[in-house]
Specification:
Length: 330
């Protein structure tokens, strides 16, 4: 998919006419231009605007009246404040003291930077290779609306190899993991539980007239703090890994979890610790390291990784067409 998934969803949410699309492109361009500069004068904004491909009216400057109005729109829609420093005569993006808001703002800005670059470089589309996003993101605007207004959703969902089910859902939060969007909340068919559903397996989503009250103690970040991925069916514990020197830089530069610590570095390997629930998603990720990674503890996870390695080896030793990919024979 050529545009970033977030940008496509945002367009779908706010689009109502070609005029609104043009406004959105201007907002993205303005946020991108100011955030990349770290501080920029109005004259420089005018100069860059005159050369921008988003400037479809071929304006020589970014009109002052439009600039002031778009600043207000950006603050209202995105929660991003463009501030003016009278001492330096420069515009910049205001920083927030709230860590979570800051992280969301950085994610939004990064999405806008990429999206704007793609918009202005469509002639290079054959040279920009992006990952395909599965179906389901078209439901995100409806779910966002339900979360904003605390409306109950009617969901038709199907599991792999099973018939579709229809139920109502109180949507608590949205989560992205490995190219898939998920909605997390309380379903009517399991009212005492909170469950997560992949949107690429959702058939339909509809707003209902019913409403719900979000639990006062619900914290989406805390809900998934001890997990990697979307499964939340284990308790957190200490996990210790040994990673060979070839694989260690990959884990070091792209941590698997916020609790990751590199506690030992040698010429041949590094050791990492985590306080995490070793769920299916986390274990699958560890397996991608192959023989470069060894689980040191907990013992049950070490045994599971060893057994999986034994099964894999026996499959290859059995030769072709041995049926090892059949889970009933594994």
């Amino acid at each position: 998919m050529f545009f970033s998934s977030f940008f496509a969803i945002f367009v779908a949410y706010f689009i109502g006419s070609p005029m609104q699309v043009r406004f959105l492109q201007r907002y993205v361009w303005l946020i991108n231009t100011i955030s990349q500069s770290g501080g920029i004068s109005k004259d420089d904004i005018d100069h860059r605007w005159a050369c921008s491909s988003v400037n479809d009216n071929h304006e020589s400057v970014y009109p002052n009246r439009s600039f002031l109005r778009h600043k207000e729109d950006i603050a209202e829609i995105f929660g991003i404040e463009i501030v003016y420093n009278r001492r330096t005569n420069l515009y910049s993006i205001a920083h927030t003291g709230d860590v979570r808001t800051g992280e969301l703002r950085r994610w939004l800005l990064n999405s806008f930077v990429v999206s704007n670059a793609l918009i202005e470089s469509q002639q290079l589309h054959e040279r920009i290779l992006a990952e395909q996003i599965p179906e389901g993101q078209e439901f995100v605007p409806t779910i966002i609306e339900a979360m904003r207004t605390n409306q109950v959703l009617e969901v038709v969902h199907t599991r792999f190899g099973q018939a579709s089910q229809m139920f109502t859902l109180e949507p608590y939060c949205l989560k992205v993991f490995k190219q898939r969007w998920y909605v997390y909340g309380r379903p009517s068919n399991h009212p005492d539980e909170r469950r997560i559903y992949a949107l690429d397996r959702v058939v339909s989503v509809r707003l209902t007239s019913g409403t719900f009250v979000l639990p006062e103690d619900f914290d989406a970040e805390a809900e998934f703090a001890n997990y990697y991925g979307v499964f939340t069916n284990r308790e957190a514990e200490l996990v210790r890994l040994r990673v060979e020197k070839v694989g260690a830089p990959y884990m070091r530069t792209l941590p698997l979890h916020h609790s990751q610590k590199e506690v030992l570095v040698t010429d041949d390997y590094s050791e990492f610790t985590f306080w995490i629930a070793p769920t299916f998603d986390f274990i699958q990720q560890l397996r991608t390291y192959g023989s470069q990674l060894e689980v040191l503890e907990p013992e049950w996870l070490r045994d599971e990784m060893r057994e999986e390695a034994r099964k894999l080896l026996s499959c290859y030793e059995a030769g072709r067409n041995s049926g090892c990919a059949n889970p009933m024979k594994a």
